[in-house]
Amino acid sequence: MSEDAQSSEKTWEKVQQNINEDLEDSRRSLKEVSLMLEQSQAEMSKLTQRNSVITGHLQQVQSQYESLPREDIRAAYDAALEAQQRLLVMRSQLEKLTSDQAGLQRYVAMLELVKKNVFAEGQGVATAGSGGAAVLEMVINAQESERQRLSRLMHDGPAQTLSNFFIRTDIAVRYFDIDAEKAKEELGKLKKEAMATFQEVRGFIQELRPMMLDDLGLFPTIQRYIETFREQHGVDVNVSIKGQERRLEPYLEAMLFRAMQEMMGNAVNHNKDHPVKIEITVELVLDEKMVKVSVSDNGKGFNPATVNDADNLGLKLIRERVDMLGGSIEIDSAPGKGSRISFQVPALEASVR
């Protein structure tokens, strides 16, 4: 064996070792997150009951508002506010843990799929030379690109707003000793901004992993996403979903949703300077053996030969995932003639839910 071949074999063995270690770490993290989620759900139940009791007490206080001492009224309102805040924090924590759990489940499934298809017994170093390493590189690059994008959005949005909250909260506290009405007005503004920031963070979480995908499945999630997509981007999206709805393997549902999301995003992002209003058509067909996805647009189109370019990492990754799942993909596009990307993969039904 040549020196280059030995070096390649060692490198590939190291990649295999890293994948195995990452898989074990992810499985361990998944167990920890699942346990934390179970504990948080129990705590959420207790807080909900406590909040109901406090709300009932607050209603009694309100009915006796004129006769009760000011200290008792304030104590009741403080207790109600604290209970609501704790409930809100716990609800946010539950959403985060649920998202983390779903993300880890998806990541574990992906690693298991890579291990099964790329590191299959007998393939060895040959796989590395035939595209296995390239698949891993694309997966990692795509993940890092998404993390960088979300990091930038979080820094420019919620992180800046939250930093400003600390300053404005301090100002509102000082106003209480000077002008109670002004303090109340300032806190009202803070409340509105806090709710807007909370919704923005929820949007990021939703973008990372729609919880509907785990709870309701692929069809409802796609329909809801397209409704939101229309509102966000102001484009016309026609959707056609055919076939008997049923649950597929979690990693397959995630792959199909992400592929559709990527292709719709490309249709908008690559046609921002197009003089004609963009129209997108999404088709999903689920028959007994295959699931077929198609996204087409009336944009400026592109040369299919450029799919392997660095700028088309998302589409390239879709093609590799379709190949790994034993499917096929077709790209029909040309400059000035719009585009249509369609693929089909085996419809692997979920074994256990």
What does this structure look like?
With 353 residues, the chain is α+β, with helices and mostly antiparallel strands. The chain folds into three domains: 1-119; 127-209, Single alpha-helices involved in coiled-coils or other helix-helix interfaces, CATH 1.20.5; 211-346, 2-Layer Sandwich (Heat Shock Protein 90), CATH 3.30.565. Helix content is 69%, strand content 11%. It has eight helices and five strands; from the N terminus they run H-H-H-H-H-H-E-H-E-E-H-E-E. It has helices at residues 3-63, 70-118, 124-175, 180-208, 211-215, 218-233, 250-269, 313-324; strands at 236-243, 279-286, 290-297, 328-333, 339-346. It has a five-stranded mixed β-sheet with strand order 1-2-3-5-4, with helices on one face. The chain is globular. It starts with a helix and ends in a 7-residue tail after the last strand. Mean pLDDT is 78; it is low at 121-130.
What's the short story on this structure?
This protein is an alpha+beta fold. A hairpin with a 5-residue loop joins strand 4 (328-333) and strand 5 (339-346). 69% of the residues lie in helices and 11% in strands.
Query: Biggest sheet, strands in spatial order?
Result: 1-2-3-5-4
The CATH topology name of the largest domain reads Heat Shock Protein 90
- Write down the CATH class of the largest domain: Alpha Beta
Write down the oligomeric state: single chain
Structural class: alpha+beta
Gross morphology is globular
Which range does the strand content fall in? 5-15%
Task: Give the beta-strand count.
Answer: 5
CATH superfamily of the largest domain: Histidine kinase-like ATPase, C-terminal domain
**H/E topology pattern:** HHHHHHEHEEHEE
The rounded distance between the terminal residues' Cα atoms is 48 Å
- Tally of separate domains: 3
Q: Number of helical segments? A: 8
What composes the largest sheet?
A: 5 strands, mixed
